[in-house]
Amino acid sequence: MDVSAPAVSYVRERLGSSLFSRVAGPAGRDTRARIHETPGPRWFAPDRPIRTVHGDASMFIGGLRALLLQSLHPLAMAAVAAHSGYRGDPWGRLQRTSTFLAVTTYGTAQDAQEAVDRVRAVHERVRGTTAAGESYHAADPHLLAWVHIAEVDSFLCAHQLYGARPLDADGCDAYIADMSRVAAALGVSDPPRTQAELAERLRAYRPELRATQEAREAARYILLRPPLPLIARAPYAALAANAVSTLPPWAREPLRLPRLPGFERTCVRLSGHALTRTIRWAMAPPPRAAGPRPADS
Q1: Among 189, 165, 144, which Cα is nearest to 54's?
Q2: Residue 52 near residue 166, CB atoms below 8 Å
Q3: 36 with 151: CB under 8 angstroms?
Q4: Which of 106, 116, 93 is nearest to 183 (CA)?
Q5: Which interval of the chain is the signal sequence (predicted)?
Q6: Residue 189: Cβ within 10 Å count
Q7: Relative to the CA of 55, which of 68, 129, 132, 163 has its CA 20 to 30 Å away?
């Protein structure tokens, strides 16, 4: 059947706009213009790997993986459950996170520093005690480091599997080094700068990790009860399945996430590639536009 170019363009525009509004919020287009068009020095040059990774559709999978992995630290999960409002305002939290990533990756150095300062001010106020009686403080460098390495590992893992331009070994190290600059600005002490350092840091945290009731509830909410319209549930389920499939067994078992290796290597992986290609197609800028994709911000 012949499909007209206007019809394809219409579908592409509607799908891209819907995805962008979910990720960036109602002011997303203005925010994107400010981030990319404001003149001034940046933290990262246009050819840096952090721009390649954060501008790719694989971030949809990497972001879900990061949330699941981060939940395994009981202090981090307690802080999220008590202070983040992820149930009451999940899209707002996503939009704030995506804007922070966009500003620090693509924005001016001044805007990036201001974004970091705002996050650090929030972290200073987030304190409490877990159900087990353990105290936490979101500004604790040790806790910040866990959140950071879980993100870096997840974003890079997803990009290497589903990204349009996977990095070579040197590029992977360079991405981790790029992210270490943001982490240090946020208060992380001596963040990892290579794949070897990242793997060692993950191993060092494993004795502290466990799945609390809050973590399992968060996983069920993220994977099974997302606040989405019915039409979006099937593609989201495929993204979620791909996020789960990339987690190591030591992270999946405490969260009671099923493991089906054969099915995951075939059907799940194929669905992940198909979805990221579709997102990449829908959110690509029009031919006259320059710079990173709308997914960046």
Answers
A1: 165
A2: no
A3: no
A4: 116
A5: none
A6: 10
A7: 68
